[in-house]
Amino acid sequence: MKHTVTEALGSLVAEVDAMIRPLLAGGMESLGDEDLVDALAIGGRMLRSIESALVLAVDEVTRRSESAGREERLSTRFGCRDVSEVVQRSTRLSATTVSRMQRAARAVHCDRTLVSGALLPPRFPATREALLAGDIGIDGVLAVTGPLAGLEQRVGRDLMFAADEALAATARGEGPDSAPPATADELRMHASAWAVALDQDGSEPRDHEALRTRGITLGRVRNGIVPIHGGLLPEVAAQFQRISDTLALPRGGDDTGGVRFRPDDELGHDGAAPDDERTAAQRRHDALATALFAAAASATLPTIGGAAPTLLVSVREADLVAARGAAHADGIADPLPIGAAHHIACGGVIQRVVLGREGRILRIGTEERIFNRHQRRAIALRDGGCIIPSCGAPAAWSEIHHVIEHSRGGPTHTDNGVLLCWFHHRFLAHHGWQIRMVQGVPEVQAPTWLDPTHRWRRVTNSPTRLVEAVIRRT
Question: Domain map of the chain by residue range?
Answer without folding.
Answer: 31-195, 246-268+275-474
